[in-house]
Amino acid sequence: MEEKYNNARLWQIGLFSLNNAATNLYLAMMAYVSYYANSIAGFAAILITMLVTAMSVFDGITDPVAGFLLDRMNGRFGKFRPFMFMGNLMMAGSCLLLFLTTHHIPEVVRLPYFIFIYAVFVIGYTFQTVVGKSGQTVITDNPVQRPVCTYFDSLYIMASYGGVALLVSAYLVPKYDGFTNFMVYFQLVWFVVTLSFVCTLLAMLGIWEKDRKEFFVGDAVYEKVKLKQYVDIMRNNRPLRNLIFANSVDRFAATVYSHTAVGVMLFGVMMNNYVLAGLIGIITAIPTLVVVTGGIRVAQKWGQKRALVIFTELAIFFQVLMAFVLLRPDVNQIRYGLYLPNTVSILFFVVFVLLNGCKSVTNNMVVPMIADCSDYEVTRSGHYVPGIMGALFSFVDKAFAALGTAFVGLVLLIVGFGGTFPQVSDPLTPTLKWTILFLYCGVPILGWLVSLLALHRYELDKKAMHKVQIEKSYISMQRRAERLERKRERKLVREGYLESKKERKQTKKMK
Q1: Which of 145, 334, 336, 358 has its CA 20 to 30 Å from the CA of residue 170?
Q2: Under 8 Å between Cβ of 37 and 421
Q3: How far apart are CA 23 and CA 409, in angstroms?
Q4: For residues 330 and 409, what is the distance between their CA atoms, to the nearest angstrom?
């Protein structure tokens, strides 16, 4: 039996991927919430670290609930679009309140107020992000098209983080002389809220045509989703378990090396050039996308699993090279400009491009792979539950992200930053230098090594997914045939040519 794929037009994939841009804009901005809470609202650094960690755990807890609700959703506006719209509105309202009003609240209730508003943000963020992982199942199931999602995700995430970082490091921080001026956060929050809302509307347009029950698997739209299915899926869907574990270790490492404080220490303290933290994402965007394109080509030819393994191994290699570059005594001479660059600058930018490209592939390739696991679940149990699949993934993902945040806070506490976060004006001590190398280079290398062990146990390679799509197509056609038969039967009952089930039961009892 031949596969019959649900193909998408390129603009649909491109626009729907803006949903990830919308959420990552907020994620990039919330990286600075610790500096706002410490510098403007007056909370201690270690307290904020623990609060952000706790909110990340709460974020993970809300994922199964959001996934459960999404799988039961099938209103006039579809399954996915209501979650996207409501989630974005909740994030917008909560962030405006969080950044613009917290420091005006009386101290006695300031902390509970901060926690409550942050919790509302987390719920909105969960609503919109659960769509990013589960919506992949209806956009396309073509194994050639799914890796293309990685390209757009990488492009938009780089633009989101790079744009926010550039705005903060190259404009807001120099203009307002550091992170202690309220106007830094005032302008940042309005920029993110506006741009994220536009991205959300465009993403809704991208999924509009596919957000209908005919693109759900057979009769899955009518399934009664039960909470016990979470346990069943985690127990019996081995590919999902292995993918979750591999990604969770990656997420822990990514949270550590991309932490705002680590960026301040790396670019501001070690390199003495914090403006570069924002510029580097723009400077290296095009060559990084070339590396990502190579990753997509590998995924299309040999499958997403093999591409993820190859680029994880390459990431380890280039991260080791980066450690040697940062150990050079002239690392504070790294510059970018129209003049002739020096050796250390050339080495840094070349290695950074290759490393960042590999990171983009490893971080974003897992999103379409969740859709593969969801398709596998259809063939395994007959259930189409993309919300549960995405929620399980996000739950563990965010729990490990919370551990990463707590880990950075613990390391900073040990090296003497318990009261305030590192500032760009801090001197580079030997202790701080080795702390930077450990957080930026050591942790990700260890994380990727562990991730490779899990990926080698992940079964859904290109050959396996070919078989899954054939079985899924058969199940889908079988369920559609059953639904058409029930529809025909109801029509015959209404026209009086056939007894209803209730009438047949009564007739049988009389006999």
Answers
A1: 358
A2: no
A3: 24
A4: 28
Within its chain, how far is the Cα of 244 from the centroid? 13
pLDDT digits (tens, 9 = 90+) for 175-224: 888 888 999 999 999 999 999 999 999 999 988 887 766 655 544 444 55
**Closest C-alpha to 299, from 245, 355, 367, 247:** 367
With H, G, I as helix, E, B as strand and everything else as coil, classify residue 462.
helix
Q: What is the pTM of this model?
A: 0.71
pLDDT in tens, 484-509: 777 777 766 666 666 665 556 666 55
Which residues make Cβ contacts (< 8 Å) with residue 224, sequence separation at least 6? Answer: none
| Secondary structure (H, E, C), 46-77 | HHHHHHHHHHHHHHHHHHHHHHHHHHHCCECC
3-45 per-position pLDDT tens digit: 566 777 888 888 988 998 999 999 899 989 988 998 899 888 7
Give the N- to C-terminal CA distance of the chain in Å, as an integer.
45
In the chain, the amino acid numbered 470 is I
Report yes or no: 183 and 56 within 8 Å, Cβ to Cβ.
no
List CB contacts of 471: < 8 A, sequence separation 6 or more.
Answer: 379
95 burial type by CB count under 10 A (0-12 exposed, 13-18 middle, 19+ buried)? buried
Three-state helix/strand/coil letters over 147-190: HHHHHHHHHHHHHHHHHHHHHHHHHHHHHHCCCCCHHHHHHHHH
Instruction: Name the token pair of 141.
Output: 């199931």
Is 10-460 a domain of CATH 1.20.1250.20? yes
> In the predicted model, is pLDDT for residue 225 greater than 80?
no
Domain boundaries, the chain: 10-460, 475-510
Task: Using alpha carbons only, give the angle 119, 81, 364 rounded to the nearest 5 degrees.
Answer: 75
